Amino acid sequence: MSASSAGRPGAASGLDATTGGPEGDPQLRRAGAERAAGLRRLAVDTLDGNWEHDHTVPSRTLYPHQWSWDSAFIAVGLAHVRPDRAWRELRTLFAAQWADGRVPHIVFNPALRVGSYFPGPEFWDSARADGAPAGATSGIVQPPVHAPAAWLTHRRAPSEASVRALRWLYPRLVAQQRYLTGRRDVGGAGLACLVHPWESGLDNSPAWDAPMAAVPADAAVMRAYRRHDTAHADAAHRPTDLDYAQYVAIVASYREGRYGDDGLAGRHPFLVECPLLNAALGVAEHALARIAAVVGADPGPHRDRAARITATLVDRLYDPTTGTFHPRDLRTDRLIPARTVLGLMPLILPDLPARQVRAVLTEACSPRFGLASRMDRPLPTHDRTAPDFEPLRYWRGPSWLNTSWLLWRGLLAHRRPELAAGLRESMLGLVARSGCHEYFHPDTGAGLGSPAFSWTASLALDALAEG
Q: Which region ranges are annotated with the description Disordered (predicted)?
C-alpha cells in the first residue's frame, strides 16, 4: 500500500485480496486477512455490546430503545454471525406493529426511566390512538427495508427455523406494504407519503428545508423539553433547536388526530413523497415475491406492484433536467431542488429503467458525490459543492454507512462491479480507520456521533462477507 493511499479514509485499505495490491502478493493478502478479521471482531463486539434481551439498541448513549430501520439493517449483519438474533430482532419489532399495518419507528423499552430519551413515550402518547399496540411506541414510520432484510437473513443462513420465521413475518410485511401504499398514498398517484422528516431516516437533510419552511414553530417551544441527544453529542453536529421545535409541531399535529391518516391533505403541515421511502417500497415487493415463493404464497402480485411502484417513482420524482430524483412536496406539488443522496437511492430498484440508471450513475460519479472505482473521500449525504453543505451536521453532509450500503447494493444489482468495489472499499476504510461510528466526516473520514453504532457494525459485516 502506497504512502499516499494509506492516509486517505476512503482509499483502498488492504482489507482483503480485492481491496489492495496484487492478488499474487502473499504479504498483502495476509495483511488484508488480518485487517478483515480485526474489523469482523470489532463489528461483532459492537453488536454484542448493544444487544438487549430481544433486540439491539442503535447506541447505548444516544438511542437506548429499538428503532425500525436500524433493526432491519442490524438483522442483515447479524445473519452472518448470530442468525437466531437476527430473526428475534425482526420478530420483536413486528410484534409492535399497529393494527393498520404501520411499523412504528421507535419501540420503547419500558424498563428505562421516564425522561431517558426525548421524545419519549409520554410525548408520543400512542396509547390514545386506535389500533396501537399494548406497548409504547412512536406513531410514525421509517423506510420499509424490512422485507429485503428478512430475505437476506434467510439467504445467508437458510434453515427450517428461517422458513418458519419467514412464514410468521410474511403477512406482517404484506400489511406494512398495504399501509404505506394505501393509507399513505396522500397524493393519489400510487406513492407513499412522509408525514414527518424523521420518517425518511434522514432527519435534517437539506431535502426538507423547503417544506419545513412552511411549518410554523418557535425555538422557545424547546424550553419545555430536555433534549437527550445534545447531552451525548456535540450540539454543532446535531439538528438545531429550531429544527426540533418544528419536529415537535409536526408530531403534535399528527398526534392531535390520533395518528389517523384520513384527511391528511387538508390539515397536516408536512407531506412529501420521498425517493428513498418509495424505492424501498418497490424493493420490498421484489423481496416479498421471493419470500412468497418460499412460504407457499403467490409471488405474482408482488412483482406487479413492484413494477407499478418503479414506473410511478420515475414518473413522479425523476427530473430529466437535473438527471436525478427529487422528493415532491405535496403542499406545492413541486419537486424539491436540493440534490442529496436521496436522489441516488432509486438505484436499489432492480427494474429501474436503463435511462435512469445511467443518469443516477452520472450524478453519483459527479463532484457532488464522488463515487469512483477508487474513492479519495467517502460518499456524502448532500451535494458537497452546494453552499449549504455542512460536513459535521448529521444528514447535511456527513457520510453514513447505511446510505452507502444501499447504493452499493444497487451497484451490485445493476452490474457495476468496479464502482461497487470502490464504494465497498471506502465503507470498510472508514470503519478500519475510525471504528463503528454513527457517521463520518465526508472529507477526513473522522468518526462522528455515537462511537459504537450498531448498523455501522452490521453493514460492515455484510460488506466484509462480499469480499
A: 1-28
Residue 443 falls in the annotated catalytic set:
no
- Structural domain includes residue 328: yes
Q: 10 lies in a domain?
A: no
Give the per-residue pLDDT at 353.
98
Q: Which residues pair with 59 in a beta bridge?
A: 63
| Residue 8, pLDDT score | 40
In a domain? residue 14: no
160 is known as an active-site residue: no
pTM for the model stands at: 0.92
Q: Among the options 229, 329, 438, 462, which is catalytic? A: 438
Catalytic residue, chosen from 203, 329, 363, 462, is 203
pLDDT band of 32, cuts 50, 70, 90:
confident
Tell me the C-alpha distance between 448 and 238, whole Å: 10
Q: What is the CATH number of the domain that holds 432?
A: 1.50.10.10
| 107: Cα separation from own chain's centroid | 17
13 vs 54, residue with greater confidence: 54
- pLDDT surpasses 60 at 367: yes
- The mean per-residue pLDDT over the stretch 328-346 comes to 98
Per-residue pLDDT reduced to its tens digit, 211-225: 999 998 766 665 666
State pLDDT tens for residues 89-110. 999 999 999 999 999 999 999 9
What is the domain extent for residue 108? Answer: 30-465
Instruction: Say if 49 falls within a structural domain.
Output: yes
What is the number of domains present in the chain?
1
Is 216 buried (19+), middle (13-18) or exposed (0-12) by CB count in 10 A? exposed
